[in-house]
Specification:
Layout (H helix, E strand, L loop, with lengths): L3 E2 L8 E2 L7 H23 L16 E5 L5 H13 L3 E3 L11 H8 L4 E8 L3 E8 L5 E10 L1 H4 L12 E4 L7 H14 L14 E8 L2 E9 L6 E3 L3 E12 L2 E7 L6 H31 L36 H24 L1
Parallel strand pairs: 3-4, 3-5, 8-9
Antiparallel strand pairs: 1-2, 5-6, 6-7, 7-12, 9-10, 10-11, 10-12, 12-13
Length: 353
């Protein structure tokens, strides 16, 4: 309906005039249309991101710390793990006199539900605890053959905070205790998706291999061109000791029968070297005793000369003529030299007179 306008004095309704449109107002919708078309073309050409924006649901947090008395190699390994795991947290060193159950309270204060604890003993042996705090299970390992990132200087590299792939040996699915460890390692080492400190890229792999009843850890870079692997580091070997039902204690679920403590290993090495030294000393003592023993004279065996062939007898020659004396050339030369020297002395004395 067209807008109408009444006259004040009751006249007929007159149609209202339409407002005039400026040229500027006419150009504005055309500009808006052009901008909308350009944005559509840009969206069409834009390459989508590798991971869409989502919600951070997996709230796994790992507490990584150690006891007092660790060496520089362990400290560098701990720093490498914190750098590779953006969902980790740090804490001060724990006193060796404190009991391990205190770690559960520390995890609760730090709002962490997993823990990697490095325990040093005798300033040469390193043990690693992997625990699900506070209800368990937990596993204790002896850490061997540690090589840190700074020490290896490998050619591989990865983005800091990127999410890793986890590669496990097929042997993890064969035995029940390895299956439990696999689940524990997945929950600890896998970076949660959409974590605030993580990067939305997957450019390296954590490999866990079982060899010689030990778990070998390696970190590789994934090269985009041909999907080849280049090692980054760090690397270490975990020798399983026990698996406990609770966190840092409780009933023992599994005990490794192949495990040999470092003290026992050092004792065996010392006993081997001592055995070698004792064997050498015994050989020397036996040689001395043989020298001191009197030599036994064996009786003459009459059958020893049975196969002896007698030598041919040479004819005896009798010399009837006296042999000529041998001339000593050296003595003759000395006499001639003395004679010549005397003659020279006489000649010199005559000339002086």
């Amino acid at each position: 309906m067209a807008a109408t306008k009444r006259k004040r004095r009751g006249g007929l309704a007159v149609q209202a005039k339409k407002p005039k449109r400026n040229e500027k107002d006419a150009k504005q919708p055309a500009k808006l249309r052009d901008v909308a078309e350009e944005t559509k073309e840009e969206e069409r050409d834009r390459i989508p991101g590798p991971v869409c924006k989502g919600k951070w649901k997996n709230k796994e947090r790992i507490l990584i710390f150690s006891s007092r008395g660790i060496n520089f190699r362990t400290r560098h390994l701990m720093q490498d793990l914190r750098m590779l795991m953006p969902h980790s947290k740090a804490d001060t060193k724990m006193d060796r006199k404190d009991k391990l159950f205190v770690i559960n309270e520390v995890c609760e204060m730090k709002n962490c539900n997993k823990c990697i604890y490095f325990e040093a003993k005798k300033k040469q042996d390193l043990y690693m605890w992997l625990s699900n705090s506070p209800h368990g299970p937990s596993a204790k390992f002896l850490v061997q053959n540690i090589h840190t990132l700074a020490e290896l200087k490998m050619t591989g590299n990865c983005l800091k905070g990127s999410r890793p792939l986890l590669s496990f040996d097929p042997a993890f699915d064969e035995l029940p205790h390895y299956a439990l460890l696999k689940e524990l390692l997945i929950q600890i080492f896998s970076t949660p998706r959409y974590h605030p400190k993580s990067q939305p890229f997957v450019d390296h792999v954590f490999t866990f291999t079982i060899l010689d009843n030990r778990i070998w850890f390696r970190n590789f870079q994934i090269i985009e061109e041909d999907a080849a692997l280049v090692e980054i580091g760090p690397r270490f070997v975990l020798n399983l000791i026990k698996i406990f039902q609770g966190s840092f204690g409780g009933p023992t679920l599994y005990e490794n029968p192949h495990y040999q403590s470092p003290n026992m290993h050092r004792r065996v090495i010392r006993s081997i070297t001592a055995a070698k030294y004792k064997e050498k000393q015994q050989v020397k003592d036996a040689q001395k005793m043989k020298k001191k023993e009197p030599k036994t004279v064996l009786p003459h065996d009459p059958t020893a000369d049975v196969f002896v062939i007698p030598a041919e007898e040479k004819p005896i020659e009798i010399q009837w003529v006296k042999p000529e004396p041998k001339v000593d050339l050296k003595a003759r030369k000395k006499r001639i030299y003395k004679r010549q020297r005397k003659m020279k002395q006489k000649m010199n004395s005559g000339n002086t007179k």
